[in-house]
Amino acid sequence: MGLTVCGASAADFDSSEDITVVSREDGSGTRGAFIELFGIQEEQDGEKVDMTTDEANITNSTSVMMTTVADDEYAIGYISLGSLDDSVKAVRIDGAEATVDDINDGTYKIFRPFNIATKGDVSDAAQDFINYIMSKDGQAVVEENKYIAVGEPEDYTSNGAEGKVVVAGSSSVSPVMQKLKEAYEKVNDKVEIEIQTSDSTTGMQNTIDGICDIGMASRELKDSETEAGLTATVIANDGIAVVVNNDNPIDELTSDQVKSVFTGETTTWADLEK
C-alpha cells in the first residue's frame, strides 16, 4: 500500500512541491530510535551510519518539531506518540495507526522504550521517586498520558525520604516525567523534583558525571553508557508518530516510503504517488 489521500484538502495541495524533511538533532533519543526502526541507520564497515539527508531541517526538541511541522504545509517529521496533539497529523504506517491499541496488538511497530538511568547508589529521595514511578500509581500516570505501562507494578509505599532530586535528559520523556513529578509530590511533599530538559545523550552524560540523580533517555542505552556505570530501568514504552501538517491530505505511508523521504531519495510529494 502506498500513499493515501483524503479528498477534502487534496485539491489545494500541490504535490509537485518539495518535501520539507524535519528531523531531530544528534543526541536525540527519538532520532536514534527513529532511524533504527525505519532502517535509516545502516552499517558500513562495521559502523552504524545515520543516513538522514543533509537537506533535513534540524529541530532540538519535541515542541519545536511540532511547531515546525504545524507551520509548513509540506513538512514531515516525527514525535513521541505521547506528545501528539491536534496541531499536527499522524499518518498511518503500513496500514496501522499510531495508537496505544495498535502498538499493543502488534500492528504498529514503531515504538521504543523510555528509560531512566542511575549510576551506583542513589539517594533515598531518588529511590523513593523511582519506586513511585514503577508503582501502580506511577504506571497509571503513564497510561493516562498515552504511554504504555510496563512490568507488574505494586502498591507504592514511601520510604519517608526528604530532599531534592534532579532528573535530566530527553525532551520526549520530559512531558510524562513532569506528570509523574506532579503526582508524586502530592503523596510525598518532602521531596522536590527538578526536571532539566535536553536530550537523551546529554541526560546520560549528566548522570555519568553526577550532575543529576536520574537521567532520561527515549532509547536503549549505548554500550559506552552502561560501561560508564549506568543502570537503565524501562519506565514506559512509547510509539513514534510520523507527522505531517494538518492541511496535508496524506493519511498513510509505507515504512519504505518514510525511509526514502528521510534519506533524501524521495524529494517531492508527487514522487510518493508513483
TrEMBL record:
InterPro entries the UniProt entry points to: PBP_domain (IPR024370), Phosphate_ABC_transporter (IPR050811)
Keyword Transport: yes
GO biological process, one term: phosphate ion transport
Compartments (UniProt record): Cell membrane
Domain PBP, first and last residues per copy: 16-136, 157-271
Source taxon at top rank: Bacteria
Record-stated family: Belongs to the PstS family.
The protein, known as: Substrate-binding domain-containing protein
